[in-house]
Write a structure and sequence with these properties.
The chain is of the alpha+beta class. The protein is built from 2 helices and 5 strands. Strands 1, 2, 3, 4 and 5 form a 5-stranded antiparallel beta sheet that branches.
Length: about 80
């Protein structure tokens, strides 16, 4: 069974990706590029909401569909 995506927030820093996906189970997938050199592209890490900066939480909340805003707030610990 696939996880339900609550919010997806893509962002580019120059030509480097910095994308976050919030899932319905509270997991956050961070897909990013660290640098342009070998080994610096297409990196992934799984995070918890308490490991995210407030700016990332805001990005994810803004990216959530209106029907998912309350759930996103709850999962991200935004009051």
């Amino acid at each position: 069974m696939d996880k339900r995506v609550i919010a997806y927030s893509p962002k580019m820093k120059g030509d480097l990706d910095d994308d976050y996906t919030l899932y319905g189970d509270g997991e956050v997938l961070h897909e990013y590029d660290r640098h342009r050199y070998p080994g610096g592209y297409n990196l992934k890490e799984t995070l918890r909401a308490d490991e995210l900066k407030d700016s990332v939480k805001e990005r994810l909340l803004n990216a959530a569909k209106p029907a998912d805003k309350d759930l996103a707030k709850e999962l991200l610990g935004i009051v």
